[in-house]
Amino acid sequence: MYGGLLADAGIRKATCEIGVNRGLSAIVVAALRAPGSPMTGIDTFGGPRDATSSGGMSGDEAAFRANVARFYADTSFLRVIAADSRAVAPSRVDGCSFFHIDGGHSADETRSDLALAAEATVEGGLVALDDYFNPSFPGVSEGTVHFLDERRGTLVPLAIGHNKVIFQCAPLAGDLNARFAERYPRVPRTRAVFDGADVLVFGSAVAPHVDVERSTPARLATRDVTLRADIRPRVRLLLASPGARIDLPLRLGNRSDIAFDWSDAPFGVSYQLYRPDGSVERYENARQYFMAPLEPGGDREMTLEVTAPLRPGDYLVHVDVVWEGICWLRERGSHAAVVPLQVR
Ligand SMILES: C[S@@+](CC[C@H](N)C(=O)[O-])C[C@H]1O[C@@H](n2cnc3c(N)ncnc32)[C@H](O)[C@@H]1O
Question: Residue 205: pLDDT band by 50, 70, 90 thresholds?
């Protein structure tokens, strides 16, 4: 996503990856380089590493080269450095617009790899760091925090997603996140602050919005997702005493083109309480999540628990499906079901 925006800003050059292993992510990193520019792969390939290393896997140079060759007929762009990344001089990988770090996972290696990436990446270029949020490798976040403290302002956090953090090399070439919002208004993301910078956070909700077949390394093709719920309450009226919890049985149909399911952005059924004059009595209420997915076209009998207001009176219960962190479905053209509630 960001590679294309950067290319549009005229920043597309060489690329580099530390920790190529057998080439899975390297194949993508190679695709992000400018035509005619090199991609450098750094890996110990099973060579000696010291006791602070904690990468888990070890690579195999022959397998790496063979896997890259399966995707690129001409691999003359490939430069392989079979060494501990801490011993690699920045001059050997200079001028990168994209640098992926997935090598040793100790604090020392991470700190050193970030320093190498910061030296080797051009102004405005991107540095992606893997496993920052992986609890099995606390050294990655530890080393990153050390680096950010020592080299304040060198790498600025830009985005978080799928266990990775993407940094941009200062000085920044324009506001990439503002450009992202302009170009991809529908791609779901939330916001966070990391090391004092505003970052965009991408979760699994991104996947349905990406048209993989039509996307290229230079441009992300998005697709609109239809979101519709057919909500049919099984009662016409709810009666409750003040503060009571009552059941609202309903039949819910998924008329969207994606499943209602559980993820880091789960789908759930919930409701808002309105007063007869249209003002809000209580907007946020308990959710009932789809722990078992409801596939497109599927229907399910459900029971929503509604908590009545403490003040007696007449209310309206608006039942809708929520995609957490993204939207209520009625904001995307679906309809909430409305059931009157009398509190006496
Ligand atoms: C998690 S694997 C990388 C996975 C790979 N990016 C992929 O897409 O499959 C980590 C790799 O980093 C390498 N590695 C570990 N410590 C390293 C170090 N200090 N310098 C260079 N490479 C290292 C390992 O040999 C291993 O191949």
Answer: confident
Is 290 within a domain?
yes
Q: What is the dihedral of CA 19, 49, 132, 9, to 10 degrees?
A: -40
Q: What is the pLDDT of residues 39-74, one digit of tens each?
A: 999 999 986 654 444 545 556 899 999 999 999 999
**Is 35 in the same domain as 162?**
yes
pLDDT for residue 258 is more than 80: yes
Q: What SS3 state is found at 339?
A: strand
Is any ligand 1 atom within 6 A of the Cβ of residue 24? yes
84 lines ligand 1 (CB under 6 A): yes
Residue pair 186/222 in contact by the 8 Å Cβ criterion = yes
Output the six-digit token pair for 102.
Answer: 């997935």
Task: Among 39, 44, 132, 163, name the best residue to mutate to test ligand 1's pocket (greatest count of ligand atoms within 8 A of Cβ).
Answer: 44
Number of domains in the chain: 2
How far apart are alpha carbons 135 and 141 in whole angstroms? 9
332 and 252 belong to one structural domain: yes
CATH of residue 129's domain is 3.40.50.150
Nearest CA, atom 11, ligand 1: 19
Nearest-angstrom CA–CA distance, 79 and 95: 14
For the chain, give me the number of helices (H) and strands (E)? 6, 19
Residue among 43, 106, 140 whose CB has most ligand 1 atoms within 8 A, to mutate: 43
Full residue range of the structural domain in which residue 205 is found: 2-209
- Is residue 198 in some structural domain? yes
- Specify whether 178 is located in the same domain as 260: no
